[in-house]
Design goal:
The complex is a heterodimer of chains A (115) and B (804). With 115 residues, chain A is mainly alpha-helical. Chain A contains three helices and no strands. In chain B, strands 1-2 form a two-stranded antiparallel sheet. In chain B, helix 14 (270-291) runs parallel beside helix 20 (430-454). Chain B has 804 residues and is mostly helical. The longest helix of chain B has 32 residues, at 156-187. Chain B is built from 33 helices and two strands. Chain B has helices at 2-23, 30-33, 35-52, 77-100, 108-127, 131-149, 156-187, 192-197, 199-202, 208-222, 231-234, 240-249, 254-266, 270-291, 297-321, 335-365, 381-395, 401-416, 424-427, 430-454, 472-490, 492-507, 530-547, 549-552, 565-587, 592-614, 629-647, 651-671, 675-696, 709-735, 743-749, 759-767, 769-791; strands at 57-64, 69-75. The chains are: A mainly alpha (115), B mainly alpha (804).
Chain lengths: 115, 804
């Protein structure tokens, strides 16, 4: 399973990077969304996908074979942060389009006297 | 301690100057500054008797003990002479500036803070025994010089001159630092005194010649030697008190000090002798030749300063020759060192007075253009007298101090023809010849300066102001210096015993162990020897050429402007400016994709490179979780969604497909036994899609018309590279564990220590509570950013631009 997941992660990153390199602003933002999905799955896979029980100690009775809790904690933080970043990007894109009238990155370069 | 503290005294005083300027505006701030150099001068004078007997003073203040860096103030004859010049001329310059700078119109606090800063820097240069602190003070003189040249910062010429001097002197300073470091590597110490003790070992080291050349670069740039002298004429944009102080009497002599200080170390080298003597003498000739082209009073003085510095430099080079002569003490070879120091004193005195007179003429007539001046003799008799004394001393006429040192200079140069090492027997004859030619031009420009200003026809219609004599306060300082010129002529041997000989003993420790052993007496009359006839010849030719100056002065204009060193400097500056600009624009396109391409490419290169170097490719086929049917189905759904995003032309489809990817990720979390993640992911994904749909309303349709095939192909290659890299990382991370996971600790202690059951939650709020705190902070920042972007709009009104 881990090997297949590694390939999935690779595909997610590939799609994300491809989208981020395009000229359209909204595709770039979608790309960042995919990138965070890839990163989350990468974290999960790094810890190993084994374990038969969710990492919850019920009533003080420990089960020997938990899923790894550490990547899960990291991912939980990352999900929230990626949400914050995505929403910020969206607002930046919205304002940029409002002010500049384009979502084409190449046209947003700025001019010689505008540095 | 005390001596080090005295170095910093002006800097400490500078702290109070802005306050005094603001609070007590009706009294000229200069009056508060004046006591500082005056008190220091008096203190250093009290050291004279013991130093003149060959003593020295040392005091130390630790700075960075762990790196063995300290402020060591070491005062011997040479340091004391310079310290007296700095504080003595400094006092006179401050006094002069009180009358020169108007207290209502000028930014006096700036001026005096810079000036005091310079005083500390300069005292530090001449007293530091530690190479690193010497370098520090050296650069501080460059910086304060930069600030003082640019004092009238609204003028373009001031800023240009300030930058030029900074560029050239700091370049030299950095070279010098390199030389210092090489010296420290060779000698194992940063102390100059200890280095002098190790000359035999150092001089055979491979780095010796490099250290020599690098340190000379520092000295030549600072002392405005050929071809670095071009900054000094442009530095004349500074207020005249500054020119008199920094750019003739003290700072430009720092290079001479450096050469003098290092003569005991480098005198063994023939390269040193040739470079110092040759460059010095050529500079003397070259600058005196071009001085006559100048029309600006201060321009003439600037070139004359360069020329005189070259003269002293060549004498210092000749003083190193004595190292190679057996029993030099009994011969004429001893004269060069003495003449160097003696002329240094004379030059500081007469050139200081001349600069002040140039300032007075500028102040009282409104112009420094010598073509508009003339006939001021009757209007400004006192200024004329002072100018005449200074100029005649510069020209080497009796009965003024310059005559004596000029004679000794000729002796020093003549003696070089008797030197028979380092090919001096073939080329040595050039030295007195060039010295003679240079002296002729010196004679002419001295007369040019004084007589074209004060004699001839008065042209009041060309002057912006009605000319009149300066107020008495302004004349005090130059008059005092002029009197000193005559006093030095009257009692040359007193000056010699108290000031010159202790300094000479410090420059030539290989000849003398105490100042009393310096076997030089200054005499007015040596009999009809070669020097005497050379002097007569110089006077005669000089006078003839001055008489006919107007006829041949125009021929200077024949020299093409495009071949001057100034033009070379300008072109170099323009080239480096535009070149750097072009180079940056080459990769700084302003197009975000370019930057992302750089980043992703570097990620690929660095990560894959690390893989290759560490042979980290690993695929562990054991410990794999089983592959189930659900996983395969979810995965296929995810692939489908990704492909939809990539190839959809509709925003709506892309956004929904992104949501689908998010939900499949949530399903993965369910399968891999991460219920908290699955819940969070579902909630967040829902909100995200809602947000996207909200923004979608305002954003344009996805248009990919501008994206050509090549563009997309390049993107695909980079994307593929990143994807493969991440797959390899995931595989390797799973296959090899460098350290045991901390998860085991959490699993064991979560119930007993933290009292919770849900391990993930306990990690977030307890074990790694700070992570969560910062996560909240990030959310807060994003929230504030979003509000600011939506609520606050940049006003279109442009602020007033300063240059408009």
């Amino acid at each position: 399973m881990e090997i297949i997941m590694s390939v999935v992660i690779g595909l997610l990153f590939m799609a994300a990077v491809y989208l981020m390199l395009s000229k359209s602003l909204i595709r770039i933002i979608i790309g960042t969304g995919l990138l965070s999905h890839g990163a989350h799955l990468l974290l999960l896979t790094m810890g190993g996908l084994g374990g038969n029980a969710p990492p919850v100690v019920a009533d003080g009775v420990a089960v020997s074979d938990y899923a790894d809790p550490l990547p899960q904690a990291l991912i939980l933080t990352a999900i929230v942060i990626s949400f914050a970043v995505t929403s910020f990007f969206l607002v930046v894109a919205y304002r940029a389009y409002q002010e500049l009238g384009t979502d084409n990155m190449e046209l947003m370069k700025g001019t010689e006297d505008h540095e | 301690m005390l001596l080090v503290m005295l170095i910093f005294l002006p800097l400490i005083a500078a702290l109070f100057i802005p306050l005094l300027y603001k609070k007590i505006g009706q009294i000229h701030t200069g009056w508060f500054v004046l006591p500082v150099p005056a008190a220091l001068f008096i203190y250093y004078s009290t050291l004279l008797p013991s130093i003149a007997e060959g003593g020295s003073r040392v005091s130390e203040l630790q700075w960075i003990p762990s790196l063995d860096i300290a402020f060591i103030a070491y005062i011997d004859g040479l340091s004391l002479l310079f310290s007296l010049l700095i504080t003595g001329i400094g006092s006179l310059v401050v006094l002069y500036s009180i009358f020169y700078l108007d207290k209502h119109r000028e930014q006096l606090h700036n001026f005096y803070v810079y000036l005091l800063m310079f005083m500390t820097a300069m005292l530090g240069v001449v007293q530091s025994d530690h190479l690193i602190s010497l370098y520090l003070f050296w650069e501080l003189t460059s910086i304060s010089s930069f600030l003082l040249i640019g004092y009238w910062y609204t003028r373009d010429r001031s800023r240009f001159g300030a930058l030029k001097s900074m560029m050239i002197t700091v370049f030299g300073g950095l070279m010098m630092l390199g030389g210092f470091v090489l010296l420290a590597i060779m000698g194992g110490t940063y102390s100059i005194r200890e280095l002098i003790g190790q000359v035999p070992e150092i001089s055979n080291h491979d780095f010796f010649i490099w250290a020599l050349v690098l340190i000379l670069l520092g000295a030549f740039t600072k002392s405005a030697q050929f071809p670095f002298y071009i900054w000094l004429p442009d530095a004349m944009e500074a207020p005249t008190p500054v020119s008199a102080y920094l750019h003739s009497a003290t700072m430009v002599k720092a290079g001479l000090y450096l050469v003098a200080r290092f003569t005991p170390i480098f005198a063994v080298s023939s390269t040193w002798v040739w470079l110092v003597t040759g460059i010095g003498l050529f500079t003397m000739f070259w600058a005196s030749f071009w001085a006559l082209k100048q029309r600006d009073l201060k321009g003439i003085l600037a070139f004359s300063t360069v020329s005189q510095l070259g003269l002293i430099m060549s004498l210092l080079g000749a003083s190193a020759v004595a190292f190679h002569v057996e029993d030099a003490v009994g011969t004429y070879f001893v004269y060069a060192g003495f003449a160097a120091v003696f002329h240094l004193i004379n030059h500081a005195v007469f050139k200081g007075s001349l600069f002040m007179i140039a300032g007075i003429v500028d102040h009282e007539t409104g112009t420094r253009d010598i073509r508009k001046l003339g006939g001021l003799m009757s209007l400004m008799p006192i200024s004329f007298t002072i100018a005449m004394i200074g100029s005649f001393s510069m020209a080497g006429l009796p009965p003024f101090g310059g005559f004596l040192s000029k004679e000794m200079f000729l002796t020093g140069m003549l003696t070089l023809t008797e030197f028979n090492l380092f090919q001096f027997d073939t080329w040595g004859i050039l030295f007195p010849v060039i010295a003679c030619i240079g002296s002729v031009f010196t004679f002419i420009y001295s007369f040019y300066f004084v007589f074209h200003t004060f004699a001839g026809k008065h042209k009041p219609e060309l002057l912006p102001k009605k000319a009149h004599e300066a107020p008495i306060g302004m004349l005090l300082s130059p008059a005092f210096l002029a009197i000193l010129v005559i006093v030095i002529f009257i009692i040359p041997n007193v000056v010699g015993d108290w000031l010159v000989k202790p300094a000479v003993a410090a420059i030539q420790p290989f000849l003398y162990s105490s100042p009393q052993e310096v076997p030089v007496d200054v005499a007015y009359w040596h009999g009809p020897n070669t020097e005497f006839f050379m002097t007569l010849g110089i006077f005669a030719v000089g006078f003839l050429m001055f008489w006919t100056l107007r006829k041949w002065q125009k021929s200077y204009d024949l020299y093409p402007e495009s071949l001057t060193l100034n033009r070379l400097y300008d072109n170099m500056m323009i080239l480096s400016d535009t070149g750097a600009n072009r180079f940056s624009r080459l990769y700084m396109t302003g197009f975000m994709r370019s930057y992302l391409v750089y980043m992703f490419s570097f990620v690929i290169i660095i990560v894959l490179g690390t893989f290759v170097l560490n042979e980290a490719f690993a695929v562990d086929m054991n410990n794999l979780a089983p592959v189930g049917l659900y996983e395969i189905v979810i995965m296929l759904a995810m692939f489908g969604s990704i492909l939809t995003i990539l190839f959809s032309k509709s925003r709506l489809t892309a956004i929904i497909a992104l949501g689908a990817v998010g939900y499949t990720v949530a399903l993965f979390f369910v399968i891999f036994r991460a219920p908290d993640l699955a819940l969070t992911q579902l909630v967040i994904e829902t909100i995200s899609v809602a947000l996207f749909l909200l923004a979608f309303y305002h954003l344009p349709q996805i248009s990919r018309k501008e994206e050509r095939m090549r563009f997309r192909l390049g993107n695909a290659v980079i994307a593929l590279g990143v994807g493969v890299t991440m797959t390899l990382v995931a595989l390797a991370a799973h296959s090899g564990k460098a350290l045991p996971s901390i998860s085991e600790f959490y699993k064991e202690t979560v119930y007993t220590e933290a009292g919770g059951g849900n391990i993930v939650n306990v990690i977030l709020v307890d074990y790694r509570g700070f992570d969560t705190l910062f996560e909240i902070a990030v959310l807060g920042i994003a929230g504030i950013g979003i509000i600011t972007l939506i609520k606050l709009r940049l006003s279109k009104k442009e602020g007033q631009h300063e240059n408009k």
